[in-house]
Amino acid sequence: MTDTSLTAGASHNRTLAAAAAVLGYAMIIGFTDNFVRVIAEDFGLWQFHAMRSAMALVLLSVLAVGLGMRLRPKSLGAVAFRSITHGLAMLIYFGALAFLPVAQVAAGLFTAPIFVLLIQRFTLGRQIGLLQVSAVAIGFLGVVLVLGPSALSGATLAAVLPVLSGALYAVGNIATREMCAEETAETMLAGFFVVLGVFGLVGMAVLALAPIVAVEGADGFILRGAAWPDATFLWWTFVQASGSLLGVGLIIKAYQLAEASRVSVFEYVILPCSAAWGWVLWSETLTAGAIAGMAMIALAGVLVSRQPSTASRQWRRHSDT
Predict the structure, then answer these.
(1) CA angle 80, 65, 75 (to 5 degrees)
(2) How far apart are CA 180 and CA 256, in angstroms?
(3) Is 227 helix (H, G, I), strand (E, B) or coil?
(4) Mean pLDDT in order along the chain per 10 residues (321 residues)
C-alpha cells in the first residue's frame, strides 16, 4: 500500500513541479521580453543574439565552476539536435517578424502543442487522450483571443514560417525528454545558447559583407548590422541573458519532469504573463477578448493536468494485473 501510494504521488508531483517551472519561466521571460523593444530601437537582432549568448555562457560557466555543474553532454548528437531545432525555431520566429505582424507570428509559434500531439501519436505511437486534445484546442483559441483578430488575418506564403517555427519548437520539446533524459538542464541550456550565439555571429558576418540599409527604430531590428554597444544595450542585454538563463533553464527542467504533450499546453501561460508585465511596465491595457482568452488558457492548463500521464496509465495497468 505504501509503495503504490508513493508511486502515484511521485507521478502527480512531477506534473505539479513542471507546471510551477513553466510559470516561473513565463514570469521571467514575460518581464525580460518586454524590454526587447528598448534594444530594437538602435541595435540589431543578430548582434543581440551574439552578445546575449556570450553573456549567458559566461554566467553559466561561472555557475558551473562554483556549483560543480556538468556542462559536457553525455550524448553530443542528442544535445546538438535539440539545440539546433530550438535555435532554428527562434531564428525563424524572429525572422518572420520582418514580414508579418507580431500577432500572426506568435499565433504560429503557439501551434507547437498541436505538433507535439501529432508527432507523439504518429511518430512515437503514443495514445492521445480526449482531454489533451480538448486542452490544446481550448488553449490555442485562447491564444487567438489574446492576440486579437489580426492573428489569423493576412495569410500568405510567408505565414507558413511561424507555423514551421512551431513545428521545430515542438520537435525540440519532445527531444528534451525522449532523447536528452540523461542530460542535465544546464547542459542543454549551454547547447541552446551556443547555437543561438553562432546564428548571431553568422548573421552579423553576412550583414558586414553585404550591408543593408535598415529603417530607423524597432522596424529595422531584423536587418540592422552590428553597431558599437552603448550602456543601455549592454545593460538590457545582460538582463536578457541572466533572465533567459534562468527562464530557459526552468522550461528545460519542466520538459524533463513531465511529458511534452502536458508541458506544452502549460506554456500558453507566457501570453497572459507577458500581457500582465506589459500593463505593469507600459500601462498597456487588455481587451475583454484578451481576458476571456486568458481564462481559456487557464482552463486548458486545468484540463491537461487532469489527464493521466503515460507512466501513470502504465502503472495502473500493471497494478491491476
Answers:
(1) 20
(2) 8
(3) coil
(4) 36 75 91 86 93 95 89 94 94 75 69 84 80 85 76 62 88 90 91 95 95 86 91 95 92 87 82 82 80 83 64 43 46
Q: Tell me how far apart the alpha carbons of residues 133 and 121 are, in angstroms, rounded to a whole number.
A: 12
Within a 10 A sphere around the Cβ of 187, how many other Cβ atoms? 23
Stretch (H or E) spanning 195: helix 185-209
Distance CA 86, CA 80 (A): 10
Q: Can you tell me the distance from the alpha carbon of 261 to that of 170, in angstroms, rounded to the nearest whole number?
A: 9
The torsion angles phi and psi of 285, rounded to 5 degrees, stand at -95, 160
- Specify the pLDDT at position 315: 34
Backbone angles phi, psi at 53, to 5 degrees: -65, -40
Alpha carbon distance 207, 201 (integer Å): 10
Q: Is 259 left (phi over 0), alpha (psi -120 to 50) or beta?
A: beta
pLDDT of residue 79: 95
Cell 507535439: give the residue.
116
Picking from 91, 243, 262, 240, the residue whose alpha carbon sits closest to that of residue 176 is 262
**All three cell numbers of 95:** 525572422
This prediction's pTM: 0.79
Chain Cα centroid distance, residue 207: 27
The whole-angstrom separation of Cα 287 and Cα 285 is 7
Angle separating helix axes 2-33 and 270-282, nearest 10 degrees: 40
